[in-house]
Amino acid sequence: MDESALRIFVASLEASRSPLHWWLEFWTFLVVAGVALEVVFVVWEYVEELHDFNRGIIHPPERPGRLLFALGLLGAALVASGVAGELYAESKIETVETRIRKANDELFSLLSTEASNAAASAKTAHDEADTVKKEADAIRSQIQPRSYTPAEVEAIDKSCKPYAGTAVRLRSQPYDVEGAIFGTYLGQTLRGEKCHLIVDTSGVGNNFIQNLPMFMDVHVTGPPESKAFIDSLARALTTPRVKAMADMGRPGIPIDILVGAKRLSAPE
To answer: Structure pTM?
Structure first.
């Protein structure tokens, strides 16, 4: 039985209990009336006996009074029927109240179960919302352009400072919007007053470059004679969010910083 049916059932039991209380009061009234008639009967008998005593003359017994007999019999009948009616009404009321208690217990149990289920559902929904939020935050962090913290920029400046004035070329892959944004940001960082490299960014965001293969992460390439600078710069550019690798080429080639596609997960 569901909640609405239980509430209707309890309401119907409550309604059926009201007439029973009226009948209980009626049978109680009959008992009171019967006891009152018996009191009248007792007082009447006492008055007659007192009258005979005061008269002091022995006389033949009088004919029993029919009215007195009727009053005594009616009082006894009212008391007996009233007590029987009270017992019957009380038993019916007790039955109804027992059914009401059972229905209320079932309703309480049902409401407790529903409340428990609602709490569990709310917790599940909250957990799912937290999971969705974490996933959204993870996706948001993955699609955000790469960047460096102030401490990481300071480490880059420190690695570049001994090589101030060194010329490098920055290039990004065609049609890679995130790579172009990160390449522009990286160029501004390397041109800074503390790093002070000479950076050519004409290859950043250039969709007409055809000689760059598809690759991931950042690659710092150059001639063997610039190995110290290339290794130092690659180490400084590597962070938990950016992976940079040093690649040595043939002698005499320019130093290139090639910005590849961003990984959707943190670099290993």
So the answer is: 0.50
